[in-house]
Fold ABC transporter permease.
Amino acid sequence: MNLKNKSGEGRSLWINPVLDKEFRLRMRTPRSFIALLAYILILGLLAIGFIYVTMGLQNQQSGMRFDPSTSRVLFYVLSIAQLVLIAFMTPALTAGVISGEREKQTLNILLTTQQSSSAIVLSKLVSSLAFMVLIVLATLPIYSIVFLYGGISPTQLSLVFLFYLFTMLLLGSLGIMCSTLFKRTIVSVIMTYGMTMFIFAVTGVAYLLFLAIVQQSAYSPGMVPPKYSWVGFILGLNPAGALVSIFEPGISRQAFLVNSGNLQDKAPIALWLEFLLVYAVVIVGALWIAIRRIRPVRRKRKEDISTSAEEGIPSGEIAEMTPSGNGKNSK
């Protein structure tokens, strides 16, 4: 039995109308099922191809076998491939949720409802990410191949899926922000993919570039190397580097070029922890901008009031200068 609100409109107290509408429209379209099928097929073919090639090479060398170490490599390959697919699909799902409403001329109608700006933005974000979560959970049977041969614990798998959820939230927040800032969907999509490219590709290339510079300068023969290098902070901004640090914690030491005879010395911060801390601030800032910018009429009215206050015009005269709704002067 559904709970009804006091106004008698039949809306659930637990799901607002915007979120309910988005769930119904997004989950029931044929395109959603096609995207889910294509996603699983890509990962499944990748896993089967990896097993076929690995067993073929091992058969030529020392007999056909698939040991836990090879299974662990398969888990790494699947995890990195799924991270790339998430980076490809998430911006496409979120970059047009607000600008699409504006292009269909339904955003003004949505803003006149009782839903707040935060409810609208968060509902759009949750509905988009819910579909991505469904796709990622649908790949669990593919990951069961890894557990057949061992090498990976359920804890590591859970941490990887939590990292996927955080990455989807990051890219979805950036997509919502661009969709609110730009009126055209195509511009919003381009800007979102540009930010995604910066996070995934530019940070990785910058790390390799600065790593070569640091190794030639600070770690050249005759120089006293520091305890660790700052270049590791760049890799901590890259999702692939943070994901690999979850698999292998020692990667953080190598990324920061920790130089000490004591093997117990650690990196100044784990790569995955830096990734979470930095981009958590980015997520909050992107959502705050989206919520503030979704209502341009209110923002323009505040700007007019502030401008008039600077010019010394009373607020009552501003109301008198505003034209009435029927376009006729009052008698």
